[in-house]
Design brief:
This protein is α+β, with helices and mostly antiparallel strands and 201 residues long. Helices cover 30% and strands 37% of the residues. A hairpin with a 2-residue loop joins β2 and β3. α2 packs parallel to α3. The protein is elongated and about 75 Å long. The chain starts with a strand and ends with a strand.
Length: 201
């Protein structure tokens, strides 16, 4: 079972690609949720207030993939689609790539636009640090305080990461484990007496 994915560690540096007086600025950002997309694009709109097009593509998720390509006023499929093609070609997810265009007075035509947006996206991804991350499953383990040692022993032995914990009379710990170990971990906790485990929503 594949339980890793590739993404970028930090936002890329700005790259510039010029074609027939038009300038194409490329950026790549790591993102986890769609709400972040607008913030990045709005920020770039403020930064480049003389630019005409802010074209982008994003992909979020590992099992359920969410993606969109936006041409922002360029002819259909000449900007967003070639940008998204580069995201696929680099094999990355949880990523947003934006290409900002300043029009230079010379029309590039459909082929020229596709090539320019693809090149700018490719350059932005090429300067990014691509990292491999694990796909993790989160469980909520609930138990009485008296069973704390049993739970903690499993967490320590199986090297599980504790995300949050509530230690009162009734305790609750959120743990994270790699997807490939998830079933085993679930079974271990299920088989412990007086301990409940459920998948985090």
């Amino acid at each position: 079972m594949n339980d890793t994915y590739k993404t970028i560690a930090t936002p890329s540096e700005e790259i510039l690609f010029k074609e027939k007086n038009s300038k194409f600025y490329g950026y790549a950002f790591p993102v986890r949720a769609e709400v972040e997309i607008k913030n990045h694009v709005d920020h770039l709109r403020k930064q480049h207030n003389g630019a005409v097009h802010f074209c982008y593509a994003f992909q979020i998720g590992t099992d359920k993939i969410q993606f969109r390509a936006n041409d922002d006023g360029e002819p259909s499929n000449t900007a967003g689609a070639p940008i998204y093609g580069q995201i696929q070609s680099f094999g990355v997810t949880n990523i947003l790539v934006v290409v900002v265009r300043y029009f230079g007075g010379v029309k590039l035509g459909v082929g020229g636009l596709i090539s320019a947006y693809r090149t700018a996206a490719q350059m932005a991804l090429a300067v990014s640090e691509i990292v491999e991350r694990t796909i993790n499953i989160h469980y909520i383990v609930s138990f009485d305080y008296k069973n704390m040692n049993k739970v903690m022993r499993v967490i320590k032995e199986k090297n599980l990461e504790i995300i949050t914990q509530k230690m009162e009379l009734n305790c609750e710990i959120e743990i994270s484990t790699r997807k490939k170990n998830a079933e085993i971990i679930f079974d271990i906790f299920t088989n412990l007496f007086e301990i409940e485990v459920k998948l985090k929503d």
